Amino acid sequence: MMDFVYDSAEGLDSQDEPAFMALTENMFQLLAMFWTDISKNGNMDACALVHFTGVLGIHSTELAYRTAYAFTPLLSSLIWIGRLLLLEYALPLQPYSYLRIPWPARA
How far is CA 72 from the centre of its chain? Predict the structure, then answer.
């Protein structure tokens, strides 16, 4: 495991910046893969995002399903973040050069 040294005045050390950029680009690629996962047979029960949404609907202390009133804000924030990720996936602001297959910018 890599330890990133964070200096409050200057941010990351210059030697850790490429490793941090590679980590963030790979994390973005993983999240884009979760959001664009398509079932081969049309059954979405095996999708990781469906399972995550189901677990998100369980209250952590009561171990019961959340009410619709309590679950709707969580679900809407998940959808909003997904929309932002898919927008960056479709029209990247910057090139992703640290991935195994480089990803060009929108220009």
Answer: 20
57-81 pLDDT, tens digit per residue, is 998 898 899 999 999 999 999 999 9
Q: What are the angstrom distances between the C-alpha of 70 and each of 4, 25, 48, 63, 67?
A: 37, 33, 22, 14, 5
Smallest CA-to-CA distance from 88 within 27, 22, 20, 23 is with 27
Question: Which DSSP letter does residue 54 get?
Answer: H
Instruction: Please say if the pLDDT value at position 6 is more than 80.
Output: no
Distances, alpha carbon 15 to alpha carbons 18, 88, 97, in Å: 7, 27, 17
With 0-12 / 13-18 / 19 or more C-beta atoms within 10 angstroms meaning exposed / middle / buried, residue 86 is middle
Contact present, 53 and 78 (Cβ < 8 Å)? yes
Whether 65 and 58 have beta carbons less than 8 Å apart is answered as yes
Whether pTM > 0.85 for this model: the answer is no
Tokens 């019961």 sit on residue: 64
